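Q: I'm building a small set of examples for a reading group on sequence design. Run inverse folding on the following structure and report the sequence directly after it, with nothing in between.
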């Protein structure tokens, strides 16, 4: 098996991140970095048009990141189309819609989404600073409460947290199997062993598998007929992801026609998120602790084109699936992410977008920029969304490469490295050129009859000329389908 990093940070190449100018803008600089991360053909960038004006209110260029990441994913699809048709279609990205998609795309009609956050989750003042507790999962909540010896309500938790130093409480909750992040400044993160490790990582690590002896691209791609309107039709995507980056990636792939099958443990649910991220997907339950369901997953892996997962590095190994995907299907495109990066002392640490913003200095920088007295994160879970679109782009580029070589690959990325890309980019005035409020014109006309009631979605942020972006089925609850292709 060959291993090669296809992208290294711009600063390691002696290339400075460009400042906005008539010749170069921040979204273009971010686009180039993301496109390099998937080893995209530079000539394809000429097919992208970013249109519109305005920014989400932030010190950091969140809207530029939204345009660049969505544009990267759409360009990868366009390049897949070119491979089959010898025609590179033009890609259009709308700045306003890209910004809105980085928040929520679903607008319920006559019903209300459940809260996105557990009542205990949030930012708390410690004896020497701030910490964020992530308690949406029941076992993460139990871990935090057991360390704090507190009742599951805000006031009790706040009183207990106030007696701790932030870094000591963070370490104690993590050791107990929970999720927490002390607020650090960007300088503190840059000096931290994990921050230093992440700064040296590529945006995407690529490992290429050897093609099977005698295999050809035709053998790998079999006899599936390419659909010029739905370019990923017939591509099987096994979705083993949770909140939020992975589901964003697979939602995007489903929109271009991919057959996405999401697998969750029987006890898992994300009631505030599932309606947002499951359109176009079939959702099934498997208990990988049982031999029968483990064998079912192996069968699904054998027939999949792409697997996308966000398990921690040792999680699949504990279930007996370490390297299993490559063994049972050498042509598989395997895309995975973690929170804190793939090297350094925290590489296996549980994490989420909101925690990463605390760890890497984003929440601290926002607090000072807005002159507030508490952590001020981005106006969207931008690290999750941008990483999700990068994963989708990598998955499609993996297909493109497999088409010509017959071999699969593994791609790894992280929220921490995406945070590095964003914080290295030029800053903006937090309240400059803010987007106007959403209007009904931003929403698609047709109703989506979700499993919870009717809803409207935002119009697509990316449009590829001559192609149709839509979902074959509305969003539905987890476990509502059979675990089969």
């Amino acid at each position: 098996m060959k291993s090669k990093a296809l992208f290294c940070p711009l600063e390691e190449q002696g290339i400075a991140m460009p400042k906005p100018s008539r010749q170069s803008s921040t979204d273009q600089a971010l686009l180039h970095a993301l496109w390099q991360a998937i080893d995209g053909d530079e000539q394809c960038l000429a097919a992208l048009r970013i249109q519109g004006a305005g920014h989400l209110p932030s010190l950091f260029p969140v809207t530029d990141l939204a345009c660049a990441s969505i544009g990267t994913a759409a360009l990868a699809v366009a390049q897949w189309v070119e491979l089959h048709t010898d025609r590179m279609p033009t890609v259009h990205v709308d700045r306003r819609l890209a910004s809105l998609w980085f928040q929520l795309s679903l607008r319920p009609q006559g019903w209300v989404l459940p809260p996105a956050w557990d009542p205990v989750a949030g930012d708390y003042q410690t004896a020497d600073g701030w910490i964020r507790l992530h308690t949406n999962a029941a076992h993460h909540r139990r871990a935090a409460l057991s360390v704090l010896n507190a009742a599951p309500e805000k006031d009790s938790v706040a009183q207990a947290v106030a007696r701790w130093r932030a870094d000591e409480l963070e370490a104690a909750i993590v050791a107990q199997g929970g999720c927490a992040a002390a607020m650090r400044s960007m300088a503190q993160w840059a000096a931290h062993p994990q921050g230093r490790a992440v700064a040296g990582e590529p945006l995407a690590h690529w490992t290429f598998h050897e093609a099977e002896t005698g295999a050809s691209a035709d053998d790998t791609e079999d006899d599936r007929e390419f659909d010029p309107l739905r370019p990923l039709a017939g591509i099987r995507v096994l979705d083993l992801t949770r909140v939020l980056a992975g589901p964003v990636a697979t939602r995007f792939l489903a929109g271009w026609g991919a057959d996405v099958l999401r697998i969750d443990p029987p006890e898992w649910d994300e009631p505030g998120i599932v309606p947002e991220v499951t359109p176009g997907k079939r959702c099934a339950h498997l208990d990988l602790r049982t031999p029968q369901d483990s064998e079912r997953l192996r069968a699904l892996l054998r027939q999949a084109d792409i697997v996308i997962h966000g398990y921690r590095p040792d999680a699949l190994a504990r279930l007996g699936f370490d390297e299993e995907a490559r063994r049972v299907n050498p042509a598989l495109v395997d895309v995975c992410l973690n929170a804190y990066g793939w090297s350094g002392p925290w590489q296996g640490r549980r994490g989420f977008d909101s925690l990463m913003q605390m760890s890497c200095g984003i929440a601290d920088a926002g607090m000072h920029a807005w002159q507030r007295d508490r952590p001020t994160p981005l106006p969207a879970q931008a690290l999750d969304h941008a990483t999700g679109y990068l994963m989708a782009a990598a998955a499609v580029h993996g297909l493109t490469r497999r088409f010509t070589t017959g071999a699969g690959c593994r791609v790894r990325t992280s929220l921490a490295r995406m945070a590095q890309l964003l914080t290295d980019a030029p800053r903006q005035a937090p309240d400059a050129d803010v987007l106007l409020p959403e209007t009904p014109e931003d929403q698609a006309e047709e109703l989506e009859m979700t499993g919870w009631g009717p809803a409207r979605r935002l119009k697509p942020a990316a449009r590829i000329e001559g192609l149709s972006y839509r979902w074959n089925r509305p969003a539905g609850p987890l476990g509502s389908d059979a675990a089969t292709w």
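The first strand starts at residue 2 and ends at 4.
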